[in-house]
Amino acid sequence: MTDFSHLNKKLQPSIVDVSRKQITRRKAVAKAIVEIPENILQKLSEGGFNTPKGSVFQTAIIAGIMAAKKTGELIPLCHPIGLENCKVDIELTDRNEIEIYCTAEVEAKTGIEMEALTGASVAALTIYDMCKALSHNITIKEIKLIEKTGGKNDFKRTE
C-alpha cells in the first residue's frame, strides 16, 4: 500500500474518490517570487508597467485568475471545482523581486490549494513573458503554499 493519494491499490494513477467527503469552506494562499534584473526593476518602478503586449501586472493578474479557474484541466488528477473567489495581488519589492499572492476560495468536497498554486505560477510565467524582451535574466525563484483552511487538515507555513 502507498501513502500517495493519487495511486490506487495496484499503484496505478487514480483520481481521489471524494464522493463521501463533506463539503467545507476552503481557502488557500500561494506565493510566487520573480527575481528581475535592475533594468526591469527600474522600468517597472518608473511606472513603465506597459509594454507592447499590455500592462505587465494587470495581464499577470488576469492570467493567474484564468489559470486558477482551469486547474482541473491542467493538472491531470486534480478535480475540477467551481472556483468561487480568486484574487491575485502583485507587489514590486526593493529587492529586485516581484511577489505574487494568489488567494482562492470555494465550498467543495476537495481542493483549493492547487488552484492557488496554479494561479501564482501562471501569473509569474506571464510576468516573465511580458518582461523577457528587456532581459532573459529573470528567475522564478519560488512557488509555495502559504496557508490553507478547510478539509481534513489546515496548514500555515512558518517562515
TrEMBL record:
Record EC number: 4.6.1.17
Keyword entries, A-Z: Lyase, Molybdenum cofactor biosynthesis
Catalytic activity: (8S)-3',8-cyclo-7,8-dihydroguanosine 5'-triphosphate = cyclic pyranopterin phosphate + diphosphate
Record pathway: Cofactor biosynthesis; molybdopterin biosynthesis
GO MF term set: cyclic pyranopterin monophosphate synthase activity
Superkingdom: Bacteria
Pfam name, any one: MoaC
InterPro entries per the UniProt record, alphabetical: MoaC, MoaC_bact/euk, MoaC_sf, MoCo_biosynth_MoaA/MoaC, Mopterin_CF_biosynth-C_dom
The Molybdopterin cofactor biosynthesis C (MoaC) domain, residue ranges: 15-151
Annotated coiled-coil segments of the chain: none
Transmembrane domains' residue ranges: none
Enzyme class: lyase
Biological role: Catalyzes the conversion of (8S)-3',8-cyclo-7,8-dihydroguanosine 5'-triphosphate to cyclic pyranopterin monophosphate (cPMP).
NCBIfam families: moaC, PRK09364.1
Protein's recorded name: cyclic pyranopterin monophosphate synthase
Organism encoding this protein: Chryseobacterium rhizosphaerae
